[in-house]
Amino acid sequence: MKELQSLQYDFRVAVSAYVNAFCKKHGWRYEADGWVSGDVGGVILIGDRYIDFDDIRTDIDNEFEKDAFVEWYDYSQRCAELRCPKRINYKSFAMGAPLPYSKDVLDNIAKMQMEIEKLKDGAEE
After folding, report:
1. Which residues make Cβ contacts (< 8 Å) with residue 16, sequence separation at least 6?
2. Contact 69/90 with Cβ under 8 angstroms?
3. DSSP three-state, residue 18
């Protein structure tokens, strides 16, 4: 039992160090109570972003450019809002993999979705 407690403590210390380094890199504030459902090492709320710890670790371990994370996060959020089926993970994005959708394609999807909503509203009248 003591060995398990020691492992859990070491894990929390390591996770905290990663999140502190990540927040320092991006100029954000680390709130230790930001872990969703209290699940340290899962998803944490930093500012207005829900961030998976694996992406934090990936960012720090690979020393990606500072702006890469925010660019990927914003791109991923837009894809999610538009319900696009294809995704790109952070590591692939930061290493230069091609995006599933260009900005123009995302703009067109958004425009088409607005048109669909207008048609639905018209059909309901």
Report:
1. 30, 32
2. yes
3. helix
Each residue's pLDDT, cut to its tens digit, for the chain (125 residues) gives 789 999 999 999 999 999 999 999 999 998 888 999 999 999 999 999 999 999 999 999 999 999 999 999 999 999 999 999 999 999 999 999 999 999 999 999 989 988 888 888 776 66
Full-model pTM: 0.85
Helix (H) or strand (E) holding 44: strand 43-46
**In one letter, which amino acid is 109?**
I
Q: Are 44 and 51 a contacting pair, CB within 8 Å?
A: yes
The rounded distance, in Å, linking the Cα atoms of 92 and 98 is: 8
Q: Helix 53-62 vs helix 2-26: angle between axes, to the nearest 10 degrees? A: 70
- Token representation of residue 37: 């459902």
117 vs 16: CA distance, rounded Å: 44
The CB-side HSE value for 22 (13 A sphere, CA atoms) comes to: 27
